[in-house]
Amino acid sequence: MTLSRRVLLRSAGLGAAAVALPSACGAAASGQTPVQATASATPKPGGTLRAVFTGGGATESLDPYVGGAPVDLVRHEVMYDALFRFRGNEVEAALALAAKPVAGQGAFDLELRPDVVWHDGTAFTARDVLASFAYMSSPERAYPSELSAYFDFAKATVTGPLTLRIPTRQPIGEPALLLASYPAKIVKPGKSIGTGPYQVDAFAAGREARLKKFDRYWEKTAVSDELVLSSLTDPQAKVNAVLSGQSDFSTDIPFTIAKTGTSNAELEIRTAGPLGRVGFGFVLNATKAPFKDPRARKAVRLGIDRQALVDSVLLGFGAPGNDLFGAGSKHFDSREPLARDVDQARTLLKDAGAAGATVVFRTAEYEIGYNASTQLVAEQLRELGLMVKIDQVGVPEFFDVKALGQTDGIVFSIGALPLPVTYSRLAAYPTLGLPDAELKTALGAALAATDEPARAKAWATAQQIMTDRGNTVVWGQADTLSIARKSVAGVETRAGQEKYPYLGRAGLA
Amino acid sequence: MRPVHPLLRHALSGLAGNVVLLAGLSFLVFVGVDLLPGDPITSRLGPTATPERIAAVRAELGLDQPVLTRYGDWLAGIVHGDLGRSAAGQPVTELLSGRVGNSILLACLATACLIPLSFGFGLAAARRRGRPADRAISTGSLLLLSVPEFVVAGFLVLILAIGLRLLPAVSLVPAGSSPVRHSEVLVLPVLSLLLVGLAYATRVIRAAAAGTLRAPYVEFLRLSGQSERTILRTAVVPAVLPVAVQIWLLTGVSMIGGAVLVEKVFGYPGIGELLVTSVQTGDLAVVQALVLVLGGATLAVLLIADLAMVLLTPRLRTGGGAE
Amino acid sequence: MSRLGKAGWALFFLLLLVILIGPAIAPNTATHPVGPPYAPPSGRALLGTDHLGRDMLSRLLLGGRPLLLTSLAAAAAGTLAGSLTGLVAALSRRRLGAWLMRPLDAITAVPPILLLLLCLTALPNRTGLVIAVAITSAPLSARVARSAAAQVAGRAHVENAIARGENWSWLLGREILPLVAGPLLADFGIRFVAAVYLVAAAGFLGLGASDTDWGRLIVEALPGAALQPVALLAPVIGVAFLAVAANLASDRAAQNSRGLLA
Amino acid sequence: MTALLEVQNLRLTAAGRAIVDGVSFQVEPGESVAITGPSGAGKTTLALTVLGHLRDGVTHDGGQVLVDGRPTLPQPPPELRGGLVGYVGQDPGNSLNPYARVATTLLRVTARSVPRPQRSALVSELLARVGLPTELAQRYPHQLSGGQQQRVVIAAALARNPRLLVLDEPTTALDLVAKAEVVAELRRVSDAGISLLWVTHDLASVETVVDRVVTIGEPTTASYSHAPVATAAREVVLTATGVTAGYGHTSVLRAVDLELRSGELLAVLGASGVGKSTLARVLTGLHRPASGTLAHRGERLPWDVRRRSRAERAAIQLVGQNPAEALHPRQTVRTALTRPLVRLRNLPTAEHDGEIKLLLDAVQLPIEVADRLPGELSGGMRQRVALARALAARPEVIVCDEITSALDSSTQSAILRMLDELRAELGLAVVLITHDADVAASVSDRLLVLASGRVARTGATADLLPPGESPEERVRHLLIDHTDL
């Protein structure tokens, strides 16, 4: 199974090297502006929409399998189509119409959409899909697609002009879900040619991409004539770009901006809604003492003050978490969060023989709030008699495997990704995954289930195990905030992609 | 006696020395970065990559070779004008080309503004030594020197871009264009760099001018009935110029590499971002190229500053003369 | 000027005192929240609270010492290493002196930020920071020391000491150092200010070592500047104050030394 | 007819101390007056008030200075500086703008716009007035000799035909030949009817030019001379042969031979820049010559002082030119005198105090001086301390490099007398390096004249500079003869 660290980061909403840091001075002081859910007004056709996202500097690329910064992902979303995609948290057909497991064969049949045209005017065929599969899973590539862990693309065969048969490596009940979950854009290998609603007009890595509407798009053609996507790495700079009128929209902005509000009547601050939240928390190392003992893990869960963390770290923009990642995705177990109980936590710690123990928590400012939340949690756990030593490192070293193995907890966040993705990513790290046979069985069953009730049951079991003795501590669900001109409309947020929304239907009202 | 003009000989020997120095420097950095914790392969492949896969990529990139061999290969590449490839596989020359130019543009513009301003303020303050104008200039530059540049930049954005909306807050440069054609995005970054550099240059020029104004030959000119204007023009300016040129050149070149923080605040498409990420991820080829470019530029400017000093000082320019 | 210089010293020492005893007089811990985030100044938190609701005054008082000591250590290490090299270069034969100085020129050619990044990536802690700042400042100190000592090294009393066979420690410590102490102290002041900035810049780039030093406080307060301007202004004024005082003290040291050799 | 210059009861103070206290004198048109007095008597300060200039820290505290009937203080009349009164300063090397060519400097002081075609003619004329060739017009000051520089300064001062020239020690920084050039030049100026106000501490050289001498402060004493001792019988202590030395590619000394006998005073005489100081440094091991040998009592000595043994280092001592630099400004006299006792004589600490008293006695300084810093001593006293420090090593040879040139004449003769006594008492051999022919004639047994880095003449002082003739004239002849060779 080849899961790269970068992909792990992508789930946390950041590109490979993007360093999220607070920066220059904030917005003009003003009264509080209420935060609104994404506007559903209809945009007017035509015009230019300008948006700014976190860039990846010189490493940005038009190749959907190279660039990994949010701006890359936003651009890839509108230039290329996947076989399946999410709408809300349901899978819907895109370039493929259906993916049906072939009983007893360890394979599935893929049926493609007819009458799709590439940006260069050629017709879309099954061979193109095969070429894309080969391209994305090529071992020479820096990040071969994670889908290769489930599907054997090398043995895939074209069975008709618009049909393919693809063997699987393990029982997969719903291939479309996996194809929608992982980035699997269909592209003409080596060229920046896709089938999406926009095609590239001009591009400068780390600065800007100008995209123009593709008139022969298979679905409804895009709303805006032109899309200008700018790259900035500094969160404050992104906000400043909108504040000073240089851009119309930016997302993933610091909470402080929302707190300050904006004095400009043309602008508003939006949230991505309850489905577009990011789970903030910690993963405890269940392979060594003291967190090898489930009672010690439980003690931490009981010992933290979730509301205080939400108020301080998220400035109130979010809700307390229930220790499970994936809030907002399908099958998520949205039970009530634990209430703080310091006494019980102390008792549990004592039972686990960990009273007064010293543990090391690793943090880096991967996302705004990582270091702050670690500091606050350390303060809170001190009240239980658990001494937390903070190991604060630089961003590039954060996921150093050896160091991860030596720490007792690391700060972690993950968006509303589909549960298979969330759990496979946690399992990818020996020290992040929970070594639990029952959990493994439940996860396998969830992946293999072909019918909905079985899937739901398997996920319920898995999440019950995580609730009972899991190693994740999710204290909060953070809102994803964006700043936009009020006239910006049609911005769609897809599950787990709150930081790189879909702009294919967006425009100015 | 001398077949080569002494100045030319000085320049040539300086150039040769600089090349040697740069080679030494690049070697040090090469070995140094190699020892850094960040490993381009593991950061590229992720922690779950199999040992065979890591070994294969290492071999592919030639990283299994001893460090000396790799340095040799890198040097050979330089001779052929090839700066190598980044860990992500892009040619370094491509990564750097536009960005280096943009950073240099910023530094050049800031220096161009710095020259007249620092000279004017420095001389004005020196002429009015101890009087209110001098106090104002000296205190002002002292205060400016005392605030970190990213704070200065932040305040400028807050006031000029967001408050008054006079200028763009971030330096968004359209694809396929260059900052030159969108001069409005240059104003604030240049201003931020300028303010910090100006404070320093003004102080140095003021000190040099004040020193010259106390020199015996200035007293002699006064006693020969020369006007203050003439004295300033004929005696003080030529004496301050060699010092000033040095400061301008050094400040200017330090702005190329020193603009990292300012570039970050404005999202300016310079080398700043590249500098930070390449060091942190141990992207040796990029770090090396940056060291080469920035180090080479600095050494070249140091040499030019040396030559300018010689050219502007008659005693040095004409050699010893009759003794 | 002398009155201004005296004021500079007085200011410097006062600030130094506050900074050094700061941790002892801080009313709260640096980490414990005392109120809502970005609360304005109030009786409970005289300078308001920071982005996590922690007492700004306490953080300021707790953070001065690490900044001061780190910068001092870095400036001292850099000035010491640089001065020693410069002094030895000035007293040595010309060829040896040039040979000693050349590698330092190479260091000057690397932008301080790059050096900072390299050192902090290798050693992501306070030691790394001190080493980085020391390395960047040593070449400049060496130049200052060399040119100051070169003016002194040819003086008759130095030659006399050489002629009567005094050893290096006497020559450097007793003959040269007392005479170049002024320029070196002045240079030390400048290095100190530069160190303060580099430490702050490290914080800005997310490389800082302590979480309360003033550079870090500035960086943390920047996003919330509109909500709680005091949280930003207090450390900015603190850093500026320190820098101004150090600059004034350095000017004064330079002036004192001028009189000595007249 | 009113006086051209009239100083009436002038009082000037600096730092609360009067530097010029009630001075009055007059200069008539066409008259030349010398102002003399010991150093620190305020001669320069006085001269500058004639031009209406007060240096930083000096305040006008009473009295008046009138030029042509008009007061120059607090603000001089507009046409005074450069017009009515010209000024020539002490150090021509520092008086000329180093960034301007001679022609530019001269044209600028004429203060009128000259049409381009006539400029070179005007410059040539101004240069011709001071006897300089036209070629110098395009040179920078550093490309001129000291004498030429000072003559350019005079040309600049004369450019606007002043009626009075204020001269502040115009010859002290010059060597013998240059000094003669400048004095001759000023004589011509004076003869042309221009008044001179000549500030000097060296009356002898201006006697032929000025009409009158005004002394401020205490008068100076007469000079000192000694009776030569017969030295032929004494043993040779130091022999240098074939000394060739230089800096970089330029050689300063060429094949210099020198022999010194115990108790003898050898004067090394030469113009400035001729390599005298280099010779001193070579002999004391501070400068390594390119070739040549040195022997001490027949034993070969290494050139580098660091390679000499302790006894060898102690045997030869140097006393330098500049009293300001001779002593460490932060070390007391006691420290300065103790170090040689420790390093060169290994004397037990208990004996230091007694020895220091003896040394201070020998140079005629009170014991209280021991705990003072050099800054609290006068130039003469510092030079005595430097001498005592050299004696502390119990040397056989002392090399004195222009030890009196920075001192006023009374201090100068006191130092020379002391040197003579020490020589007689201790049997010291002395190499006295000087540019002053009078000094050489008055104290030396033998003479070695250096010219262009070579030995031009050597022999008994009595033979080369017979009494009765002006030593300065004789030396000039010796040097010119040599140059003709």
Output the keywords:
heterotetramer, A: about 500 residues, alpha+beta, D-Maltodextrin-Binding Protein, domain 2, Dipeptide-binding Protein, domain 1, Dipeptide-binding Protein, domain 3, 8-stranded mixed β-sheet, 6-stranded mixed β-sheet, 14 helices, about 25% helix, disordered N terminus, B: about 325 residues, mainly alpha, MetI-like fold, MetI-like_sf (chain B)
What is shown here, in short?
Chain C: It comes from Kribbella sandramycini. Chain C: It is a multi-pass membrane protein. The complex is a heterotetramer of chains A (509), B (323), C (262) and D (485). By secondary structure, chain A is α+β, with helices and mostly antiparallel strands.
| Percent helix range of chain C | over 70%
Fourth-tier CATH superfamily name of the largest domain in chain A? Dipeptide-binding Protein, Domain 3
Counting DSSP H or I runs of 4 or more residues, the number of helices of chain A is 14
The overall average pLDDT of chain A, rounded, is 83
The count of strands of chain A amounts to 24
Strands ordered across the widest β-sheet of chain A: 1-15-22-14-2-13-12-11
Tally of domains of chain A: 3
The strand count of chain C comes to 0
> What global shape of chain C is seen?
elongated
Distance between the termini of chain A: 46 Å
- Give the name of the CATH superfamily of chain C: MetI-like
- Quickly give the CATH architecture of chain C: Orthogonal Bundle
Instruction: Note the beta-strand portion of chain C.
Output: under 5%
